Fold:
Amino acid sequence: MLVTGDGTLTVSNAAALDCGGGDLPIPSLVLDGDVTLRCGDIRLAAPNTVDVPALAVLGGTLCTDMLWLSNGMLVNAGGTLSVQGSVQELKRAVFRGGTTLLGAAEQKAEFILSGGTAHLADGLAEGSTVEGGAGVFSAQSFSGAAVNDYGAVLWDGADDSAYRSVYGAGYYPTDYSLDWAGTVPSAVWDALNAENPYENDWFAGTLTLENAYAPELLPWGGAHLRVLGENTVDGTLGGTGLLFTGGGSLAAGELNVWAWGSVRAPKRCAVAVMRISTVAVCNKVISHTPGRKRISR
Structure:
């Protein structure tokens, strides 16, 4: 399948976008141009030809919650790839350009860097390999992986890691869960979204608040909040990074951002005409244990 053009294609009310297989030496899915493809679940049968990727992102934007590659390869050569949840059955990832945002890669895989920027919200699986030729790659932890650094910019969140950086990753994904989002029953979650408010900062997923009330709102990770109408958070509103868009207003008792894991520079930013009012604003650093998902306060 080739998806190109300059519009947006959203695949909804379907079990998955399922394609690929066969003996032709072509990728199962190719994205090019200025097109945006949104689909909650993408399942690609890897080509039967050696070293032909299952997924090739040459341009445009691909947003999905789950990506299945059937022990195949993905290549990003110049577009934006956002996988909010996890990549399954990944054999090899090649980053030549563009931006790649991954939630988790649960099986061991080979990561080859020759350009672009890639962020992995989770740690690398045991037995993985990183070939860092050029570009930027971050993960929560490189522990258990073989890392060959030939000049790429590498960093992770482990306290004792040689790749720990004071600046850290500019990736603020939302680890969505009803454990915290359930405090705002009227909120609407959209995993198929990636925002780039500044050159090196990325947010994955959007939570829309419209005339909502919550006693507190503490997402696990960052949060892109689309604010409509008048909204109130009595207690603390916080995360590793907060992006506010929309044309509404939001009042919170306290606005708090913190560093955690590979995120060493927590961010607050607003992109829209709106009002944000708080009683107190504070920043703090929270230590991270590799593999741990929830943030302690």
Observations:
- Residues 279-297 have pLDDT under 50 and may be disordered.
- Residues 186 and 212 are 6 Å apart (CA to CA).
- The longest strand covers residues 61-105.
